[in-house]
Amino acid sequence: MAADNDGRVLLLGFESVSSDTTLETVREHIQTGQSDDTDRPDTIDAVEKRRTQLAEMIDVAQELAPAPPITASLQVVRDVTSGILAVADRDGETTVLLLRGVGLGGDQLLNRSTVDAVLANAQCDVFVENTSTEGGEFPLYVLNTEDHAVTPLVDSEARPVDSILLPVSAGPHAALAAEAARAVARADDAPVTILHVISSDEARADGEDILKFADYVLGPNVETTTKIQTADTAVEAIANEATEHDFVSIGAPDQKSQVEQFVFGSLEETLSEQIEATILMARDADATMRSLYYRWKQGIESTDDNETSE
């Protein structure tokens, strides 16, 4: 996504400490490279391990294509959630990607409270990625919970994306989800299936408009297929269709309670049980502004085409 927008990636690592005293000791060690070994807290060893992890991640990420500029930063903080929000709100052009593991046991990449807090409070676009189940033919990383390390990262492979599902609705975050699907599709030359779920045939006309809008956002350089399905619940229809794909990009539901259910509830559990898929949920900080921009652009281009034909 960064490459698709001529952006850069900051790989942000965190090590949390329990007291201000320990925080100052670690900061002194980072600044000077020295510390009193007789009174060296275990946190300094943890910081050094985290630094090594970030360096390994940078090596792996730089081999990916396309590879935008990638840097790493290690933050030693009292609270991880506050640390993420502080970095996210530095400027208006930041986008946050939160990774949350599926099938990784109790040592998940980010806990639920942190993800919820960033979704609710960050003043920028936020993506939450539920990574595919641990193991499989193309594991991106494996968590070693005993040593709190990421292994074997150097030997791991990025999982190729062969097919993308883009479920869309009239919600305010659909355009951002379409942008994400477009970036992944361009990078991996993957086709995108655009899905809209309706509860009755009366909503079919509006559904066709929603599909046309999403197809416009994806652009002419992405191979697309559009589908409308009638179902009692959107979750069931999406889950069934997702079995045919290995990447799902979807906009966040409007209500916070729905966001919690969607990211951490039935859909994630169903998908993780049925397929080895990655789910990317998009929350647009500008809400409807992105959609309005695309609709305005779509209308202008349609007007220009009509004038040319005349």
Overview of this structure, please?
- This protein is an alpha/beta fold and about 300 residues long.
- The chain is built from ten helices and eleven strands.
- It has helices at about 20-30, 40-60, 80-90, 110-120, 175-190, 205-220, 235-240, 255-265, 265-275, 290-310, and strands at about 10-15, 70-75, 95-100, 125-130, 145, 150, 165, 190-200, 225-230, 245-250, 280-285.
- The strands form three sheets. Strands 3-4-11-10-7-8-9 form a seven-stranded mixed beta sheet, with helices on both faces.
- Helix 6 links the parallel strand 8 (about 190-200) and strand 9 (about 225-230).
- It is elongated.
- Residues about 100-110 and about 135-155 have low confidence and may be disordered.
Give structural attributes:
310 residues, alpha/beta, seven-stranded mixed beta sheet, two-stranded parallel sheet
